[in-house]
Design brief:
single chain, 137 residues, mainly alpha
Length: 137
């Protein structure tokens, strides 16, 4: 079976983009978990659905603009800049909600309350969608 040269070049570009996006996603997750006032990993291991919802929402909210950046940038450096900005925007959004609207967020997530977790999930995804849309302009 013969593979055209452009397929091999495109496959290599895909692998590099996927790897870099994966590294950014892992870095975002670690940074996000470091700035939250509760320990998501421990809470999730204990079966705390609220912690899983909040962390999952943050990850989806971050990966949406990452996908847009992958589709709309032409260089790896440009992608990295957009990926960094997307992470900053997600973290700033979380911090703003926690410091204004939901000052008791940590306690409520630790208790496993689903309502505030779903609210934060919705905000994270909404911010991610807006962020992704702005990257296409």
């Amino acid at each position: 079976m013969y593979l055209p040269d452009d397929f091999l070049a495109n496959a290599l570009a895909f692998l590099v983009a996927f790897l870099v996006a994966g590294v950014f996603t892992i870095a975002f997750k670690l940074i996000y978990q470091a700035i939250t006032p509760y320990k998501e990993s421990a809470l999730i291991r204990q079966g705390n659905a609220a912690a899983a919802i909040v962390l999952g929402g943050a990850l989806v909210g971050y990966v949406l603009p990452l996908a847009s950046a992958l589709a709309n940038t032409s260089t790896l450096l440009e992608f990295c800049a957009w990926a960094t900005l997307a992470g900053v925007i997600q973290i700033v959004s979380f911090t703003a909600i926690r410091m204004t609207v939901m000052k008791d967020l940590a306690e409520r997530v630790e208790r496993g309350e689903i309502a505030p977790a779903l609210y934060l999930l919705s905000i994270s995804i909404a911010v991610g969608i807006l962020n992704a849309a702005c990257m296409t302009a």
